Amino acid sequence: MKSNTIADLLSKENTLQDVEIKGWVRTFRANRFIALNDGSTINNIQCVVDFENTDEAILKRITTGAAVHVKGSLTESQGKGQSVEVQVSSIKILGDSDPETFPIQPKKHSFEFLRENAHLRTRTSTFSAVMRLRSSLSFAIHKYFNENGFYYMHTPIITGSDAEGAGEMFRVSNLDAKNPPLDEKGNVNYKEDFFGKETNLTVSGQLEAEAYAMSLGKVYTFGPTFRAENSNTSRHLAEFWMIEPEVAFMDLAGNMDLAEDFMKSVLSYILKHNREDLEFLENRLLDEEKTKPQAERSEMSLIEKVKFVVDNNFKRVSYTEAIDILKNSKPNKKKKFKYIIDQWGADLQSEHERYLVEKHFNCPVILFDYPANIKAFYMRLNEDGKTVRAMDILFPGIGEMVGGSQREERLDVLKEKMKALDIDEEELWWYLDLRKYGTAVHSGFGLGFERLVMFATGMGNIRDVIPFPRTPQNAEF
Ligand code: 4AD
Ligand code: MG
């Protein structure tokens, strides 16, 4: 007989059938009741052991964390808390788990502790729910693009270019670090390196996605990206996953429409398909919020927040309007901001973004038309000569979720911009070719996948929504 999943058994109407399950013991109580989980659902199934007819030695090995193989019959439950349970006819221990040393005890552990045990933390309800949601969101993303005529392309992980021009890259090299070859000037000679040039892990697949948009029309990439920025915050990872669609003949307004429609679609997917996990995480969040002062608690529950995004239009606000709002805001006037906004052109810090989305608008906000000099080189210059067709999408509780733009399609303007920023034309010869041969308006954006998972799960630290987080001073596992 094939093993059943717990999700399957719990969703069945018909009981009184023979079943076979393999899973891990969450708890074993009164020498009789096993709460068993196999990862297929947030719920455990109760397995009732006939202890009088079970070998004492076996009973002793039914411990939290042990892997077991249970055979029995699915019956209506006599007890409270579950509708069905398994009357065990035989149980086999597949893998023991020493209760003295198994780190995941049946009690509340801190997220810090669980991070140090990231290889075992998905044995907890919270992390299994988060990772199931992460998986579901990934699927919903591919589904959305597939149904909307986008091609999935794989952009390179190793590149020679700095797509964001921010210099926050991890070098890729197989030169001998202790004794690298030097050139005449005494500098490391990367001509002798594996690729014959300096290379790094990609910070974004955008530039290559642009190349494909300019032939396939609508493409997206969804892959790992790497940033060597030393920001030890709850929203930054050194390795994170980014979704980057790129579309030919689409302007900034179309880009905003796409981003909004896309996010609403993937969030409504999980509302429909991941109800139990969301409900579990919603209750977790409510418990966590009870420990906070009233003023800091959120007005909406997790599911309400997700629904709110699905059901309401994002607010579209120009950078210039945002600066006016911030200039006249209370925290600015009372000098409560760390960075006071006194003039047009200031870069927005997360305190300002938070004020806009959490205090002023109280909904997702699309900020657009930023000053050219605080944004990347590839963004389309507006007719005013000082702003670019950039957009950032800010979310309550998260801050920046999406960064995107209409791209500079005019060869001369792009060249001038690169010159001003000291970006080597020869390095990006192929990128310039796209403007030489059949150039056209095109746009795209990048969505930080982990930030989306944070929003959808209500988790407060980005390290808790990716299986094995990479952050400064930490690459365990
Ligand atoms: O705003 P960013 O830097 O934009 C780009 O990389 C563009 N090339 C995207 C494009 O237009 N195709 O990054 C995009 C998003 C951010 O809005 C944020 O959500 C996320 O990526 N992000 C990070 N997420 C986690 N850790 C980090 N260190 C991140 N840096 C950016
Ligand atoms: Mg950005």
TrEMBL record:
Q: Where is the Aminoacyl-transfer RNA synthetases class-II family profile domain?
A: 131-467
Protein location: Cytoplasm
Task: List where this protein forms a coiled coil.
Answer: 271-298
Q: Which Gene3D superfamilies match?
A: Bira Bifunctional Protein, Domain 2 (3.30.930.10), Nucleic acid-binding proteins (2.40.50.140)
Q: Which UniProt keywords apply?
A: Aminoacyl-tRNA synthetase, ATP-binding, Coiled coil, Cytoplasm, Ligase, Nucleotide-binding, Protein biosynthesis
Could you tell me one molecular function GO term of this UniProt entry? Answer: ATP binding
Quaternary structure (record):
Homodimer.
Record-given protein name:
Asparagine--tRNA ligase
What gene name is given for the protein in this entry? asnS
